[in-house]
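User: Can you model how phosphoenolpyruvate sits in this protein?
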Amino acid sequence: MRKPIMAANWKMNKTHLEAIHYIEELRNRLHHKAYDRCDVVICPPFTAIRSVQTVVDADELPMAVGAQNMYWEDSGAFTGEVSHEMLTKMNVKFVILGHSERREHFHESDEAVNNKVKTALDNDITPIVCVGETLTEREAGFTNDKVGSQILEGLKGLDDERVGRMVIAYEPIWAIGTGRTATPDDAQETISKIRGYVREVYPGAADAVRIQYGGSVNTGNVDDLMAQEDVDGALVGGASLDPVQFARIVEYE
Ligand code: PEP
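Assistant: Here's the modeled complex, given as structure tokens:
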């Protein structure tokens, strides 16, 4: 059985002080049984990671901290980048890789994503690898081709053991931050296809790899999305900025 994973992607929001207030509020809202049922991951900007960890550690909260990006080299002259060791030394357990905003605004290629995925897995950081199609691609019937090639390229050169440990987020680009969500059936259909693509290359990993849905997930649609057989959680942007809403999403029915 795959344990669902609910991840908050704050993107470029919240100062370190706002982050502390948020975690305190989330702590007060979440019932302890929520953590037993699913993994809870908070992905703040780099500048707030330490603040989030401080509250998580002080209150021994069973939630994990993730980063929103990471470079694949160990160290060196890469101004502005952050390495795996910088993250693991701060007890960061997850990293979002290949988010569509990074692919679009920072020109991240599948090859770059693949390098980062390997580095993360080799250093005990669980990558949350994002894939998804644009509206034009969807309307042209290319959804499966697009996510299939992102999976093949992004996961190239791995093995069943490592792929089984990672998380994939299916995020249709037209649904991110737009208020438009894939229907639960559409999310299920594409996510089961993604599991099929994984099975073709890494048969031993397909039933273990957790695949989230992301794209305007909110308190009103999370229950129906989570009722789908292959949907193993959600990557949440906008609605995760409010601890009250994110708590309700984590405690989906
Ligand atoms: C995201 O950025 O990963 C995301 C899913 O954002 P939103 O929930 O705002 O659509």
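A couple of observations from the model: The chain has a mean pLDDT of 97. The pocket of phosphoenolpyruvate is lined by residues 9, 171, 176-177, 214-217, 235-239 (CB under 6 Å).
User: Helpful, thanks.
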